[in-house]
Amino acid sequence: MQGAAIVRHVVTFGRVLREVGIEVGPGRVEDAVRGLGAVDLTRQDEVYFTLRQTLVSRHDELELFDRAFVAWFLRGPVAPLVRQKQMRRFTDRVARDTLETGTDDADDANPSSTPHELGASGHELLREKDFAEMTPEEFERVRRLMAAIARTRPRRQSRRRTPDTRGDRLDLRRLCRKSLRSGGEPIEQPWKSRKVVPRKLVVLCDISGSMDAYARALLFYLHAIVGSGGGVEAFAFGTRLTRLTPDLATRDPEAALARANEIAVDWGSGTRIGGSLAEFNTTYGRRALSRGAVVVIVSDGWERDDPDLVSREMAKLARAAYAVVWVNPLKGNPEYQPLAGGMRAALPFVDRFLPGHNLRSLEELGAVLAGIERRHAA
Amino acid sequence: MYAESVSFRTIDELESALREADYLPDRGLATALFLALALEKPVLLEGEAGVGKTEAAKALATSLEARLIRLQCYEGLDVSHAVYEWNYPRQLLHIRAAQEGTVSEEELFGSEFLIRRPLLEAIDSDEPVVLLIDEIDRADEEFEAFLLEVLSDFQITIPELGTIRARRKPAVILTSNRTRELHDALKRRALFHWIGHPSIEREVEIVMLRVPGIPEALAKEAAAFVRGLRSLDLVKPPGVAETIDWAQALAALGREEIDAEVVEQTLGSVLKYREDIETVRDETLVGLIEEARATANR
Q: Nearest CA to CA, how far is A243 from chain B (Å)?
């Protein structure tokens, strides 16, 4: 192959990759061309790895790449390629737009419905109302109030220090510099302190039939949290587990919920809490997603299978996590007793057990998350 | 740029040099390392713990006759531990010692008071260097952004001293266990290679190389057994590193083949979690051993 032919080939292949949703910038194409210039073009494995290593940067894109490679270079029969609907770079904009339109509408419909005026009597009622009993209009109003609650996130101290007059540690670098003027006497003492940054937050939300009304509300809440900054991971589970984070960042939460329902719920077959937790622990826990994180599980605790599995997997989860919070909408009923087998099995590993049936309880959740401390330390 | 250092014209050449350094790369990894040198770009190696990411960097350094500089990442890693720090006690003592005479700022922030950390060391080196930035996924995102800057320009600015530019670009290897996705910008800067578990033939070869004198039959059984373990639902599936450790233990016990007794005794060097050891007890263990022996004898 001549130089120009290689370039043409690679550029076209880059376009094929973009078609299937692998983002390929011009810099990458250039690397690929340079790389091919350095390897033996008669060897298929060298060509394959050179293209793969220069054009792909994510493990989960490898399969798509392989199919595109077979289709393009080997002209082999392949399964149809899937086109990804949205590109990640729109993520932020979409998330922001959703929040902004939310506020605009609120102003049009009801000038006083800003989050700061939660205390108004109409809202007081709305705050107490069970999500399951709300009309679509009420639900719509509640949605907008959630963004405000979502801003409270659990925090941790970063190890990084910044100048701070009320800091707890001398800033030696600045001290030395300032001491120059006073012949080595540290007259002025600059201090520094640790920054406080948001702590990782992992939310696992039960979306099986019995949780329907609540799961929807909580997903809107999650959507707002994901919009509040990085370090949030969201999952939905029913009979299976599915990761929601990318959907919550790009699409509207209704679409995310619909998709999660398709993947994770077999209608009428009950909830597999233990199995879903196991899936989380193996797939994501192993990658330390839960380590040091505040993990929030939202579920009514009805386990279809063996409660023992719930307790085993909860033990694993609790060991890795900073703290575990269980939100059970049924707890909103004053007569509720945690009798469901799954719930009983899980409780010993739960740091905080909260209701999540109305807006007020979400506020409470927000407050708990903001101030949560590790149980083992407390 | 690498005029006086070792260089490789083909992937085969690099592969045999790595073999001489007791490392058996598959074709993909050899290609990745070759491209990293040819394009002078960092390479990001991702994969489960124990598949030999760190070892690859060490072997590359040996093959290149280069110095290996390692930066181990952790949450909270900052510039003063990764790049440089001023030696404050010495600085203060120096000002005191000067007493009446005045100390100029230039004098105080001169290179004799500079403590050089791995990144500065790698950038400011005259000998060939392989810079290993290990477990970058453990560092926080602020550090990743800083690293991105260093890796694009290969220069470091120290306000008091000015900018230090690399006279020769170090070969850079980043590793990640994928506890989180890295920032796209950093990934764009690097070549990407995913290391999976090796094929059974290669793993046997690796064990034979790293555990000299081990009977081939034992190496095969050990590799096949570990492979069986990886197919189970474990908290931490064993990597190649664990296979090597275990084979060493078996060889040290003078074993010719594996049986339930010796596996029970030594399982701790393959499985590092109590839950995993419990999962593998009893029938599972016997089944795995039978299967491993069948695979090894094929």
A: 14
